[in-house]
């Protein structure tokens, strides 16, 4: 009796190890309930784009006595369909007939394509799976096929040579190494029938499309900070962070976090949001320190990936020091005074200046004019 218990324990350990080593990333889901341009229907991007049998999205299952009724989505093989039994779905229909369920006119030769309008990015994503439910009775000369395209390249057929002879909703899950580490992965569905005259049957119908991949947590992408400049830095000043990603990722939104003076990230000093786009792996980000970050000797930065998945918490930087510096206002020479000509009485001039240090709240600045000898009296003239 001891051996079975040890064997089962080993299986559970393997399952737990797999769950800890990979993070499932949902790259796309489409159940056709919300509308929108996820799929482009019936254009000339691929195939001849001909015939009266066209793609449409609706929730019609009644063949109107002209064509067979579409199988209810309560009849499935391999899982359940969201919003069943009569949800919206992508399917072929005989457009001139006005019957809107899943059907086709077998006497009218047709070739129609529906494809993802926008692709998904799979950099650093492994084991990408493409899954969907379909039904397709058709015939030997009326069938569906599926295709993929990588980075805007040609459409390539994969999966079964023909999707037909299926009268219930069948779940399909396909994975291929070529789906990983591409910037633009798209999938498409094609319907073809010749002008024969077999009995009327259901055409190609599609629902609940998902694209899912795995992000490895045993060899994750790291986000490291290489330098912080200047160091030490004055309170409230600008600081530049040099960062590095260990591998390329898809375009994403990132958060720059600042710790407290003890190197603890507790949210007390706020954060900044920025974008890092493929194929960038190194760069510089400049931020202004908040007034809450007062003098201390062990502040840290880290950069986290927020969206899209995978979400990544960056590596905390080394300690850097924030010091208290005097508030300094430097008035620079107006451009109009740089030549030898005098400035006319009553002229309007711009006076540039710099203001450094920690200033709290709203601040008003005034321009004072000295006496002709360059000295400022106790009540100088305010000119701006």
Q: What is the helix fraction of residues, given as a range?
A: under 10%
Instruction: Using the alpha-carbon principal axes, give the shape.
Output: elongated
Distance between the termini: 93 Å
- The rounded Rg comes to 33 Å
Number of strands: 25
Beta-strand share of residues:
35-45%
Largest sheet: 7 strands, mixed
Instruction: Label the structural class.
Output: mainly beta
Oligomeric state as shown: single chain
In DSSP terms (H or I, runs of 4 or more residues), the helix count works out at 1
Q: Would you tell me the overall average pLDDT?
A: 90
Name the helix and strand elements from N-terminus to C-terminus, one letter apiece: HEEEEEEEEEEEEEEEEEEEEEEEEE
Uncertain runs with pLDDT below 50, 5 residues or more? 1-20
What would you note in describing this structure?
The relative contact order is 0.13. The protein is mostly beta strands and 384 residues long. It starts with a helix and ends with a strand. It is elongated. The protein has one helix and 25 strands. The strands form seven sheets. Strands 1, 3, 4, 5, 7, 10 and 12 form a seven-stranded mixed β-sheet that branches. The chain has a five-stranded antiparallel β-sheet with strand order 2-6-11-8-9, with no helix packed on it. Strands 13-15-18 form a three-stranded antiparallel β-sheet, with no helix packed on it. 5% of the residues lie in helices and 41% in strands. It has one helix at 2-21, and strands at residues 22-30, 39-41, 53-58, 76-77, 89-94, 110-116, 126-136, 142-150, 156-163, 166-175, 185-193, 205-216, 223-229, 233-234, 238-245, 252-258, 271-276, 282-288, 296-299, 301-307, 320-323, 328-331, 353-356, 368-369, 381-382.
């Amino acid at each position: 009796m001891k051996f079975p218990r040890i064997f089962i324990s080993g299986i559970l350990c393997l399952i737990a190890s797999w769950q800890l080593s990979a993070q499932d990333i949902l790259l796309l889901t489409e159940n056709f309930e919300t509308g929108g341009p996820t799929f482009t229907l019936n254009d000339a991007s691929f195939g001849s784009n001909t015939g009266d049998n066209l793609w449409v999205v609706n929730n019609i299952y009644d063949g109107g006595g002209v064509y067979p009724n579409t199988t209810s989505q309560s009849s499935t093989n391999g899982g359940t369909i969201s919003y069943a039994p009569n949800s919206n779905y992508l399917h072929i229909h005989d457009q001139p007939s006005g019957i809107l369920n899943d059907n086709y006119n077998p006497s009218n030769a047709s070739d129609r394509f529906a494809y993802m309008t926008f692709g998904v990015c799979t950099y650093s994503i492994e084991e990408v799976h493409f899954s969907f439910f379909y039904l397709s009775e058709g015939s030997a000369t009326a069938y569906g096929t599926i295709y993929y395209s990588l980075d805007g390249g040609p459409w390539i057929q994969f999966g079964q040579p023909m999707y037909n002879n299926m009268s219930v909703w069948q779940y399909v899950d396909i994975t291929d190494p070529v789906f990983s580490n591409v910037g633009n992965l798209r999938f498409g569905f094609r319907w073809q029938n010749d002008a024969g005259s077999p009995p009327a049957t259901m055409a190609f119908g599609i629902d609940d499309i998902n694209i899912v991949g795995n992000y490895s947590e045993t060899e994750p992408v790291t986000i490291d900070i290489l330098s912080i400049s200047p160091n030490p830095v004055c309170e409230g000043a600008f600081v530049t962070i040099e960062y590095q990603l260990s591998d390329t990722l898809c375009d994403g939104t990132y958060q720059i976090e600042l710790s407290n003076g003890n190197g603890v990230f507790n949210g007390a000093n706020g954060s900044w949001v920025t974008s890092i786009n493929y194929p960038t792996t190194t760069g510089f980000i400049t931020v202004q320190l908040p007034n809450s970050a007062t003098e201390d000797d062990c502040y840290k930065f880290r950069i986290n990936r927020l969206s899209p998945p995978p979400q990544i918490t960056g590596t905390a930087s080394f300690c850097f020091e924030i010091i208290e510096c005097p508030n300094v206002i430097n008035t620079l020479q107006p451009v109009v005074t740089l030549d030898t000509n005098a400035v006319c009485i009553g002229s309007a001039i711009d006076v540039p200046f710099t203001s450094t240090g920690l200033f709290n709240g709203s601040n008003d600045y005034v321009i004072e004019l000295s006496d002709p000898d360059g000295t400022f009296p106790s009540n100088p003239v305010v000119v701006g």
